[in-house]
Amino acid sequence: MRSNELLLVEQSRKGDVDAFEELIRDYKKSAYNIALRMLRNVEDAEDASQEALIKVYKSIRNFNMQSTFKVWLYRIVVNTCIDFKRKKNINTVSIDENSGNPDVLIEKNFNSRLVNDAVNKLDDDYRTIIILRDIQGFSYGEIAEILSCNLGTVKSRLNRARKNLKEILENGKVID
């Protein structure tokens, strides 16, 4: 952990709200993006990511520094999204950003929508691991910490998720 980050964690533990704001500043957008990918709805993602950040603030005294702050925070985000989905138990829609050259935009949105729709068809466990690894770029070790599972589980789940995703993209079917 960066020394500045360590200092901010310590100050946040003592109730310094400004230090906490500075600590999470670089992670807010990624937290929201993870929530958006998992929940597939802007309002739900805003609510869940905000709820996760509140949980982080309230429980920062429990952060044991055995993992990085980033991994600990994203574990809370993922778990909050899972809980949020259980509470709401509704289907949501995904979004695409609209910007750029119209021809490129049409192609990008078509491909993005196809992949997004395919990812959305995956089981929650597979969707989460695809989001963390292939979309957010976390390492296998970080994913193992975020999901509280071992490295072998991460690798095998990611392998199965990618096979399912490929099958969905090629045939529109989910395999087991």
Walkthrough of the structure:
By secondary structure, the chain is mostly helical. It is 74% helix and 0% strand. It is built from 9 helices and no strands. Helix 3 crosses helix 4, helix 4 packs across helix 5 and helix 8 crosses helix 9. The longest helix has 21 residues. It is elongated.
Straight-line N-to-C gap: 39 Å
Count of helices? 9
- Tell me what portion of residues adopts beta-strand conformation: under 5%
Q: Main beta sheet, described?
A: none
Q: What is the overall pLDDT average? A: 83
Any key phrases for this structure?
elongated
List the helices and strands and how they pair.
Elements: H1 3-13, H2 17-25, H3 28-39, H4 42-59, H5 69-88, H6 102-121, H7 124-135, H8 140-147, H9 151-171
Short description:
The chain is an all-alpha fold and 176 residues long. It has nine helices and no strands.
